[in-house]
């Protein structure tokens, strides 16, 4: 298992990243994306896991649950 951190400059960069990121990756994004209209909707519908970067403990909990689920369901 590994972590891929993508620092992109614009929403259009996401389309390129989708093409090169392995199929079994689990995308995690900042919660603020939910409020970007169509982009937020598309992210939510595509199954992105959102974390609230302003609440550190909650963000860590979400990432820990995601890691546990990935191990349990063998999504590595």
TrEMBL record:
Keywords: Acyltransferase, Transferase
This enzyme's EC code(s): 2.3.1.51
Enzyme class: transferase
SUPFAM superfamilies tied to this protein: Glycerol-3-phosphate (1)-acyltransferase
InterPro entries: Plipid/glycerol_acylTrfase
Annotated ranges, domain Phospholipid/glycerol acyltransferase: 1-73
Pfam families per the UniProt record, alphabetical: Acyltransferase
A cellular component annotation (GO) from this entry: endoplasmic reticulum
GO BP of this protein: phosphatidic acid biosynthetic process
Biological pathway: Phospholipid metabolism; CDP-diacylglycerol biosynthesis; CDP-diacylglycerol from sn-glycerol 3-phosphate: step 2/3
One Gene Ontology term of the molecular function aspect: 1-acylglycerol-3-phosphate O-acyltransferase activity
The keyword Transferase is assigned to this record: yes
Coiled coil ranges: none
Protein name in the entry: 1-acylglycerol-3-phosphate O-acyltransferase
Source organism of this protein record: Regulus satrapa
Gene name as annotated: Agpat1_0
């Amino acid at each position: 298992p590994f972590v891929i951190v993508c620092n992109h400059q614009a929403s259009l960069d996401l389309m390129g990243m989708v093409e090169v990121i392995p199929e079994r990756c689990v995308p995690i994004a900042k919660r603020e994306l939910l409020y970007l209209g169509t982009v937020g909707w598309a992210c939510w519908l595509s199954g992105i896991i959102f974390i609230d970067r302003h609440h550190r403990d909650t963000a860590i909990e979400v990432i820990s649950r995601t890691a546990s689920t990935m191990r349990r369901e063998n999504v590595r």
